[in-house]
Model the fold of this input.
Amino acid sequence: MNLTTAAQKAVLQIVSKPRKWGGDQDYMVFNEWLTEMIQWMNIADQCGPPTRHSSSRGAHILTSVDLTRTNTVASFLEGEALRWYRNDVQRVPDGFSDNPDPLAYRWTFMQVVNSLYQRFIHEASISQISDRFYGVTYSKAKGVKSMFSELK
Done:
């Protein structure tokens, strides 16, 4: 084991894991969960490009780091969101008649995140953000920093 890997494992034991997300329809909750998960994945060195070109296949293929990221998402899901992940992302294809390459049926990390957003975050949640934005007012006594804090 090299020093980098040992140090990385030590840091991962100290840093708290992101909380699990169960499909809460609130955009802010989703965004906080996603930010925490991506930060944890960066510390875990699960970053890099989703695809690379394979000369033997003559096409772009998923990278191992993206496959790891995609699989790691399930560790931070629960409830309805985890059921969706298992039913849609981990679904075994009925057959390979359309494309014999099994990697063609794998989801990228970005496809998973985008699909979670599409499935669980609704326009009503986005409307709540707009309402919060328009509800913030500037107060000379509190200043700009206070107004900025309210926007968060």
